[in-house]
Design brief:
With 462 residues, this protein is an alpha+beta fold. The protein has 11 helices and 24 strands. Strands 6, 7, 8, 9, 10, 11 and 12 form a 7-stranded mixed beta sheet that branches. Strands 13, 14, 15, 16, 17 and 18 form a 6-stranded mixed beta sheet that branches. The two termini are 25 Å apart. The protein binds N-methyl-lysine (MLZ).
Length: 462
């Protein structure tokens, strides 16, 4: 795979067959089309699908059975081939010309068997009748539900507040430019345009991303926001020519309510946190500031610049902050502050030495949600360090709510911890359905257990 795969479109079916056919089911992803319908999709269903084995000039269809599912992809076997798998075809249930049984009759389409089947089954009409007794099929409203679920409350010209990729401790006003599958391309209001009108600074995230907020949010919770540089003129860009409309709270996902009463996070409390700039590392960290509405600013111990510009905002319900001792009890390597040895670092000594206390365990959202992901499953995942990219990925570990994602073909240093409910992961086939560009693996996988030589990856903000 490589450049060619990008141009030709990545062949998930072929790749899955080489890598063991394991993919996360659509029902694992609450933010994706057809998630709620997926209980009705299973191996053994019969469908009417375009017949690609015919010399006829017009479109004709035939009955097929789902023999394998992987995300949105289904491996289909035309009726009549019985145990012969040599004509099986992968198709994306979200995009393929595939329908419930009965669709052809209602829509005056012809059911014609593949040539090979025609030859060895003489009376295919009664053969079919026999095979269809008691068969289950796609829900009749399958494609309607799909179309409904692709609707999005955001469109070009809507204004939001979003993390400033050049300084993660603050937000910045931005305008929606493009929406693909619920993922938004945002242009900072003072991001600037190049000499030929090209955008100099953009940011991609899903509409349910925790990094995205309605206009007015920063001021309301006490988060810092970059003042828009009014000398930068973006008005020649189409997104800024639309009537700009401020986003409002109900366009956003509702966060779980947290009570900030007597026992809440306090400045100086210690915790473990996913490093926002190195998402494969869980580090020793501190609460630096308590904002309103359950938000806190967190700094990574020992690497802070000192002016607060590298603090990161998390909601108290975020998966990315964890109680002291979480890594140890879950066998995850904890990254201690520079100067400490991974092998000998202990929280007890560190707390004593720094005269600090651990944030109480009950403040963290470590509820087990029974998510259904298992290690080895393939999926499509955003590289959160370059969030424009949706990549071929594998679940490497599952720990409570957390998933360690590996990007196929990339060094393990690119691995990222994410929450099982992050809106930045998608089932196999999602890109094809939404029209989003999928990044194929860049090369063959390094052999298991043997890590390739690499130069160390520089952390860069997004
Ligand atoms: N330009 C970057 C791309 C990294 C993308 C990795 N995605 C898993 C680099 O080569 O470092």
């Amino acid at each position: 795979f490589g450049q060619d795969a990008t141009l030709a479109g990545f062949d998930w079916g072929n790749y899955l067959e080489k890598s063991g056919l394991l993919a996360s089911p659509v029902s694992c992803f609450r933010h994706v089309p057809l998630c709620a319908q997926w209980d009705d999709i299973y191996v053994g269903l019969k469908v009417e699908v375009l017949n690609t084995h015919t010399a006829l000039p017009s479109k004709v269809y035939w009955i097929a059975t789902v023999v394998q599912l992987a995300g949105y992809m289904a491996l289909l076997r035309y009726e009549g081939f019985e145990d012969d798998d040599s004509h099986d075809l992968w198709c994306n249930l979200g995009t393929a010309d595939v329908h419930p049984i009965g669709w052809c009759a209602v829509n005056s389409k012809l059911l014609v068997p593949p040539q090979e089947v025609h030859q060895h089954i003489k009376d295919w009409k009664s053969y079919l009748m026999e095979r269809l007794v008691g068969a289950h099929t796609l829900p009749v409203d399958f494609h309607v539900k799909m179309a409904d679920s692709l609707r999005c409350p955001f469109r070009q010209g809507v204004r939001v507040e979003v993390v400033d990729r050049s300084q993660v401790s603050r937000t910045r006003l931005a305008v929606v430019d493009t929406v693909i599958g619920g993922r938004l391309r945002l242009l900072y209001e003072d991001g600037g345009l190049g000499p030929s009108g090209e955008v100099l600074s953009d940011f991609w995230c899903h509409m349910q991303s925790p990094l995205l907020h309605p206009v007015g949010w920063s001021e309301r919770v006490g988060h810092s926001i970059k003042q828009t540089d009014t000398s930068v003129n973006m008005s020649s860009h189409p997104a800024f020519r639309k009537v700009l409309q401020n986003s409002v709270q109900d366009q956003f996902k509702k966060l779980r309510t947290v009570y900030m009463g007597d026992t809440f996070f306090e400045e100086g409390m210690k915790l473990e946190a996913i490093d926002p700039l190195n998402l494969g590392n869980i580090c020793v960290a501190s609460v630096r500031k308590v904002l309103l509405d359950g938000y806190i600013m967190v700094g990574i111990d020992g690497v802070e610049i000192g002016d607060g510009s590298d603090w990161f905002c998390y909601h108290a319900s975020s998966h990315a902050i964890l109680p002291v001792g979480y890594c140890k009890s879950n066998n995850i390597p904890l990254t201690p502050p520079p100067g400490y040895d991974r092998a000998t670092f202990t929280w007890t000594e560190y707390l004593e030495e720094t005269g600090t206390v651990a944030a109480p365990r009950r403040l963290f959202n470590t509820d087990d949600v029974g998510h259904g992901f298992t290690s080895g499953m393939k999926l499509e995942a955003v590289d959160l360090m370059e969030p424009r990219l949706v990549c071929v990925a594998t679940v490497r570990r599952c720990v409570g709510r957390l998933l360690l994602l590996h990007f196929d073909g990339w060094e393990p240093e690119f691995d990222q911890w994410v929450d099982c409910q992050t809106p930045e992961i998608y089932p196999v086939g999602w890109c094809e359905i939404t029209g989003y560009q999928l990044q194929p693996p860049i090369g063959p996988e390094p052999p298991q257990g043997q890590e390739r030589l690499h130069t160390s990856k520089k952390a860069k903000p997004f």
